[in-house]
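Reopening this one. Same input as before:
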Amino acid sequence: MKKLIIGIDPGATTAISAIDFDSHFVGAVSRKEFSRDDIIYEIARLGDPIVITTDKKKVPSLVRHIASAFGSKIISPRKDMTTAEKKALAMGYEGHLENVHEKDALAAALSSFNQIRQKVRRIDKILNEKALNNLKEDVLTLVFKNGFKISEAVAFLSGEEKRMALATKAKRVIRQIVVVPRRMQALEKELKQAKQANKILEDRLNKLKMQNDELRAVVKKTGIKRGGSKKVAQLRKQLNTMRRKYEEDKKTYEREREELLQAYEPVIVLKDLSKAELMMAGKIEGKILFVEKLRGNGNYLEQRAPRLIISPDSGHLKVTIPVVKNVKGFREKIKKIGGTFFVSRLDIKNLMEKHLKTWFQDWIKSYKGRMDE
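Same output, byte for byte:
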């Protein structure tokens, strides 16, 4: 599959334009109400997006979502591109483009290519010297998509110093994280108790209001004085105090939950990868899946774009998504906190250190097999 640089121009009319790593034009598509799923489909139809880019310094959320779906590197300009800059870059391509939106998307892709041109030339030079030009697209993937150094990628793919390259990469991309989930569970319990106490007070207040209304009616008819208003005022004061405590606890819970999520990774647990199971799982784009059985709809799975699949099963799944299989005892490390499954980033780190070499070897074999088909 051809490696691409994709420029995206979001808006009422959204456009995508694609070039390869020799800056040759590959294709462009634009339309109104261009949904995210349709954009992903059109990009996948053109090729494998290694780099995704925009003409804005601040990357739009749509561009970030699309890049996340493919695991692509995002490149943005140092400042917003001017109309004159985009016109100059897209000059000569007018016959391929239908509107200004496709031109802006193409200009963004060409601008990003100019930023990485020297690195691409170094890749070409090294591969030419080693007579390994057939590895160029794989090297581009590892360098720009997976963060390898050029020397590491060439060494890994050519069989030179595989262990050294993998060890270096593992140390560079994985950090040590210590996780303590008990605080989050305690906060959830406190919140639940606060909600229950708040409900009890509200019920008591409503009951006293009704009694107070009845007493007021009696006083109005008979002139007898009662103390109902004072009791209601006391209950209202207690209720306001509990509400403030509840809001404080809620803010503390949300802050602690955010801190916990930095040390924990959400994971979606599935029986298999059937279309029905995937649809029931909801949004899985960019997520980690733990799957009991490696069987299901590979094409539909590719469209849903999870980030990683972990399974104790040894079955074969023909997808480009990273799959770590034959993982025993990992299910016991997944914890359910507040209705969501989580796994320690430390456990993910240990898993990847153990399986990284096999993962990339299987990925390279699968990729080369698809190229040969």
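So the earlier flakiness isn't reproducible anymore. For the record, The mean pLDDT is 79.
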